[in-house]
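Lab notebook, bench 4. Still working through the backlog of constructs that have no structural model yet. Next entry is a single chain of 388 residues. Request: give me the structure tokens for it.
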Amino acid sequence: MSIAGWMRSQLQRSVDDAARRMHARLVEAGFGPVQPPRMTAPLVFAVGVLAVIAAAVVGMVWATAHATGVVAWVLVVIGWLVLAALLIPRPVPLPDDVTVLDRSTTPHLHQVVAHLAAAVGTPTPERIGVDTSFNAYVGRFGWRGKDTLVLGLPFWAASTWDERLGVMGHELGHLAGRDTAQGRLKYATSSILRRTVSMMLDAGPVDPLREVLRSPSEDLTVSFEGRVTRAVLRVLAIPPFVALLAFERLAANDGQYREYLADRRAALAAGSAGLASSLSVDVVGLHTAAAAAVRRGEDPFALLAERAVRRQSDPASVVPAPVPTHRWDATHPPTELRIDLLTRLGSTPGTARPSAGVLSAVQAEMQSMQVRLARQVCDDLLDQTYTH
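Model written out:
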């Protein structure tokens, strides 16, 4: 295992341990309201990290004012470049495959999302988009940080209405608490530490000078120097990684609590059965079946919709994820723990289910998008190997 792989495994372990701790605590409460994890330690840690960064900035100002000679100025420039790389925000662009939906063309979908967000107790996302994935997510994109809900068209076609509402409710639940001072402080600290570690580890596995070298002996020399440089950078990455791991372990309880809380909010707003069912579906199998349909010249949306109808009429036909430790991504608790808590919550019908007429209108709007993006979806099904 590489050093970077080992570091990722340690960070994942902190998430898994926190997921189990919070699961046990919520089980005791019957998945009812509990006191949020204390954030004193991670916030103090975060303030300490930012204080170190502030001291580094002050030090660079002093060094700039007192620099004399070429060497000193070169070091000053390098120092400012490093600080800029660590501190300048990097807005995440909206993925190219996301099509933003205009409110005028999908008014009923926007209405349902706004109604569901109000029931979950979170702000309504500024934008709604669709893409070609078997997933749904919320993200903050662009320099203005617009909250965007993205719904995968294959996910939509393969889901029942209970599942769609449950998943959307969970994703909207992630918007709670993002704009608090505590949330911004946590995000800033984690981002700075992760950038520092990445800067040390991403020196590049291939030296670009090799492309212009002709002598094998020179190539060997550069290769040796490159290995030494990468080894030194990996050693330098240890202190910031230790700080990152310590911070993530301190903040992990809060992160996993918020994941479970998003499930609970979604269950109370949209019903627990739909969200639990969506977590149980073998998405890899659906992707494989849809790709096979495209190769046969069939409509993948029709196949996925048929699977959803079959699952709704016969819940026992739901094929669970084959791996016991299945999760939707590295930040979510293991799926079986989430389903266990939803089961303990009991069968809740939900308070924000729209009328049948509204749901029918939303379905018509999404089917229009399926027709519009059918070629893109088919191409992506054939190009991608889905591994969840």
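Notes after review: The radius of gyration is 24 Å. The beta strands are 99-100, 127-131, 136-141, 146-152. Flag for follow-up if needed.
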